[in-house]
Amino acid sequence: MTTLEIAPKVSRGAYEVTYREAGTGPVLVMLHGSGPGVSGMSNFAANLEPLSRTFRTIVVDMPGFGDSPEVPYTKPYPEHAADSVVSLLDDLGIDKAHLVGNSMGGSVALEAAFYYPERVDRIVLMGPGGLAAEIFAPQMSEGGRRLFDFIAAPSAQAMRAWVDCMVSDPTSVSDELIQERLDRALAPGAIERIRNVFGSLAIPSAGGPMWTRTGRIPHRTLVTWGRDDRMLPLEGAFFATRRMPNADLHIFSNCGHWAQVERKDAFETLVREFLTVA
C-alpha cells in the first residue's frame, strides 16, 4: 500500500472536513501546519503508511486548507479547528484519539486537549504554535517573514524561499512537493483563505493565549523541536515544557520546522514509542 492510493473521505458532522485514513489499532489523528498550499497529505503523506502499521492513522485537512471548506471565523482559527477535530471523531464514532500536530496543528491539538480533555489521549507536538511566550526571539521569525512575503506577492521564488526556511537542509524537500504546494497556494481563493486564517488570530480567545493555559493541560505530551527551526525558534520549547505538567522534550539535530520530513525515520520511531510504551 502507498499513500497515493488512499482515497480521500469527507466527514459531514458539525464541520465538513476531508481526511485520509489507513491502518487499525489506537486512533492517531495528524494535524498539519498553516503554510501556503498546505494540506494533511503535503505534511504527512510519507508518514501515513509507516504509522498505519501501528495505529489507525487519520490525516486531516483542517477547515480552509486542502480540500476542506472554509468556515466563518468567530474565534481564533485553532479553536475552530479543534472543534472540527472533535466533530470528525464524533462522526467516526471515536471516543478518544492521540493527536500529532505540526506548527499550527500543534496549537490545534492543545486547544482540543484544553476544551475537550476527555477526547484526547496522548499528544505529540512538532514545533507547535501558540505554546511559548517568545522572550528572546524576534517578534517575527525569518520563516514568518518569508511566509507573509509569499502571501503578499505569491510566486515560485517566494515559495522556494519560504520552504528553505522550513528545513535545515533544503535538498530534503523535493521539487514535486514544492510544486504541489505552489499549485494549491495559487488556486482560486487560496490566498484569501489563508489571510482569513491569520486574520482570525486577532480575535481574542475566551480562554486567553494558549501559553497562559498550558499548566491546565494534564495529558501526557511529547514536545519535539528542530534545533535549527527558523519558523518557531527552539527557545519556545523550554518555556513550553517547563509549564506543562506531563510534557517531555525531544530536540532533533540537523532539523528545522519539518521533523517529519528531515528526520522522518527518527520521528516515526519516536511517535510510535511515545504513544505505545506505558
From TrEMBL:
Keywords: Hydrolase. It comes from the Bacteria. Residues 28-267 form the AB hydrolase-1 domain. GO terms for molecular function: hydrolase activity. InterPro entries: AB_hydrolase_1, AB_hydrolase_fold, AB_hydrolase_sf, Epox_hydrolase-like. PANTHER family: AB HYDROLASE SUPERFAMILY PROTEIN YCLE, MONOACYLGLYCEROL LIPASE. This is Alpha/beta fold hydrolase. It comes from Pseudonocardia aurantiaca.
